[in-house]
């Protein structure tokens, strides 16, 4: 696995965060992080096209071996948001499939628990955990990018777990 890249994605229709980590003999190192920004006020099909093209571009540039994305969740009081997020996540997964990448999904609560020990950790705690684990001088901003790096870090830690544990973790 040494030298392989992990791409973590925090999907959204406005700002989708992404983070690229390189697996090394001693852990992981930050390669790249950023955001794919869809222009607000545009029709959904245009924003989805921008998101797909941006994701495809990141994959083509870095050629990751691993692709991790936050799992879709919904709130009963906001079903429209969940449906829109499903569209965004769908084009992200399509871009991964077109690059022959296996998509691994992680629930936000499991990412938070893996990095902080608290499945309900606030964004500020997640940003601090990412900063510490990647030995960065300051927290990553905005939170969308920190969340994407957290997903990539979660996948890195998942790769190190014995198979019997990972069956229960991802499921």
Question: What is the oligomeric state here?
Answer: single chain
Question: Which strand order do you get reading across the main beta sheet?
Answer: 3-2-1-4-5
List the secondary-structure elements in sequence, H or E: EEEHEHEHHHH
- Alpha carbon gap, first and last residue: 23 Å
Number of helices: 6
CATH secondary-structure class: Alpha Beta
The percent range for strand residues is 15-25%
Low-confidence stretches: none
Q: What is the name of the CATH architecture?
A: 2-Layer Sandwich
The CATH topology = Nucleotidyltransferase, domain 5
Spatial shape: globular
Counting DSSP E segments of at least 2 residues, the number of strands comes to 5
Give a short account of the largest sheet: 5 strands, mixed
The chain-level structural class is alpha/beta
How many domains? The number is 1
Radius of gyration: 15 Å
CATH H level, superfamily name: Ribonuclease H-like superfamily/Ribonuclease H
Percentage of residues assigned to helices = 40-55%
User: What average pLDDT do the residues reach?
Assistant: 93
Q: Can you walk through the features of this model?
A:
- This protein has a five-stranded mixed sheet.
- The protein has 171 residues and is of the alpha/beta class.
- It has six helices and five strands; from the N terminus they run βββαβαβαααα.
- The relative contact order is 0.20.
- β2 (15-24) and β3 form a beta hairpin.
- It has one domain: Nucleotidyltransferase, domain 5 (2-Layer Sandwich), CATH 3.30.420.10.
């Amino acid at each position: 696995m040494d030298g392989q890249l992990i791409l973590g994605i925090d999907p959204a229709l406005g700002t989708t965060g992404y983070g690229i980590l390189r697996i090394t003999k001693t852990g992981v190192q930050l390669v790249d992080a950023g955001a794919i920004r869809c222009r607000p006020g545009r029709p959904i099909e245009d924003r989805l096209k921008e998101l797909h093209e941006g994701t495809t571009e990141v994959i083509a540039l870095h050629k990751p071996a691993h692709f991790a994305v936050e799992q879709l969740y919904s709130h009963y009081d906001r079903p429209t948001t969940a449906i829109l997020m499903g569209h965004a996540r769908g084009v992200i997964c399509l871009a991964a499939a077109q690059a022959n990448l296996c998509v691994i999904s992680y629930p936000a609560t499991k990412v938070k628990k893996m990095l902080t020990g608290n499945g309900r950790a606030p964004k500020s705690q997640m940003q601090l955990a990412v900063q510490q684990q990647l030995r960065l001088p300051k927290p990553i901003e905005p939170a969308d990018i920190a969340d994407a790096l957290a997903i990539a870090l979660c996948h890195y830690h998942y790769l190190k777990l014995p198979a019997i544990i990972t069956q229960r973790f991802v499921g």
